[in-house]
Amino acid sequence: MNGPTPPKRSAIGATYVEVAPAYFEKRGLRRYAGVWSIWALGVGAVISGHFSGWNLGLAVGGWGGMLIAAGIMAVMFLALSLSIAEMSAALPLSGGSYPFARFALGPFWGFLSGLAEHIEYVLTPAVICYFIGAYLGAIFGPAIPEPVWWTGTYVVFLLLNMVGVALTFRLTLVITLMSLLILLFFCAAALPHVDFARWAMNIAPDGSELAEGHGLFLPMGWAGVLAALPFAVWLYLAIEETPLAAEESIDPVRDLPRGIVLAIVTLILTAFLIAAINPAIKGVGAHALATSGEPVLDGFRAIFGGASADMLGLIALSGLVASFHAILFAQGRQIFALSRSGYLPAALSLTHGQRKTPVIAMLAGSGLGLAIMLGLRSAFGHDDAGAMIGGLLLNMAVFGAMLSYLTRAAAFLVLRRDFPALPRPFVSPMGRGGAWATIAICLVTLACQVRSQSFLDGTVWVIGWMAFGAAYYALIARHRLVLTPDEDAVIRATRAWAA
Fold it and tell me: Which residue, 23, 51, 85, 466, is most buried by CB atoms nearer than 10 A?
């Protein structure tokens, strides 16, 4: 027997099947998180982007281009975060982006939104794991092969995530605080050693190094700002994962908006600190930093030198570890939610009986991410695989994230238009304008990705992944969708909220 239908149906239709109560009893989570747990999850998921990845944008935009790109992305992510905060309080449903899109746009668009986010959460930990290996390899030398660091990282943090939600959130809070402290210490220690004109502006318009610095603030002009946008995403990417904790939050209506807003404000401040200071450190410079896999470690070595820098660099790993740990949490919950709703095979949403952790979903997502890393290394060799993992997968993760942001903003606009009476405990001060700004900046960033060959390579793979997923949805998933009890209750109340 078919269950209730969503307020809007997709063009190709879908069937919601009824399930026995035991179905949800085997697929339940445990509530634990408060405001500061949500804040730590949001900041922790993003903070690795302050330690590695963003700096690659210096090569295409220079120091000034990267700073302006970071500012543009700050506007977009602030608007996106406020929109998400409003939707999370109004519709505190587990699953990240797809419940908003499914409710507002229909089941097919809900699936595409969830699939785009799925790509982001499978590949982002892989990229972070690569940077963790780069940091450890730079500190301990090449004696231990990269795959050992990668595999060990996945195994350790999978085990920590599987123990239970309480340990996961406590560890996230501790590691996130440690990451912020080391980042602030780095910036404070660097201030006496910065020379913006000499070191930050040492990139010529053709990308070569200016030996004496004193170049242009925008060496590649405004075209460089646009080219740097996809890299500036890395300073904020994954803040949107916070609604995945809705079902594990004690009071999601109150705590999710507060935690999200606190997190994005924190990240905007730290993003500008690191983007402004790190390239200007004497002996480092924007040109060298543009190709570095461990920019903060490079800065520590320039400031302190020797073993002290390596020790601080080891501590600086906390930023990468915080994001890896937090996004593994998001990866597992997102696959779990898609599976429980019928978009993915149902076995992936089974949870551990006592600990109530989505063990199978976490193993599946992590196994896929690690397999992609090892496969690239095997196919392209040691040297080329580093560029593929650090570049191609990063580009794919950003492209998937941009697609999910577009659907979130569209869902926000539809909810504001079609359900003006929907109770909104938190209201975005940027309103519809913020959602439209998110869409505009997303589209510009996607256009910049497509124009770059390195990004285009990743885009092609993401489109292929999405096409495969759409075929799976059309042939299989759309015939066996499931509404969670919370979604069912929301849908039954839509008559009172409709315009």
Answer: 51
Model pLDDT for residues 246-274, shown as the tens digit of each residue: 888 889 899 999 999 999 999 999 999 99
Assign 3-state DSSP to the chain and report helix, strand, coil percentages, each to 5: 75, 0, 20
Q: How far apart are the first and last CA of the chain?
A: 30
Nearest to 95 by CA among 325, 327, 328, 339: 339
Collect all residues with Cβ–Cβ distance below 8 Å to 241 and sequence separation of at least 6.
41, 42, 45, 96, 121, 326, 327, 330, 334
Do the Cβ atoms of 72 and 229 come closer than 8 Å? yes
Which residue in 219, 224, 258 sits closest to 242, CA to CA? 258
Cα dist from 98 to 107, 109, 117, whole Å: 9, 8, 8
Q: Provide the whole-model pTM.
A: 0.90
Superfamily, domain 21-497: Amino acid/polyamine transporter I (1.20.1740.10)
Write out the two tokens for 11: 């063009």
Return the ∠ at Cα 235 (arms to 232 and 240), rounded to 5°: 110
Instruction: Report helix, strand or coil for 281.
Output: strand
Helix intervals (H) in 164-219: 165-190
Closest-CA residue to 389 (of 50, 149, 213, 71)? 149
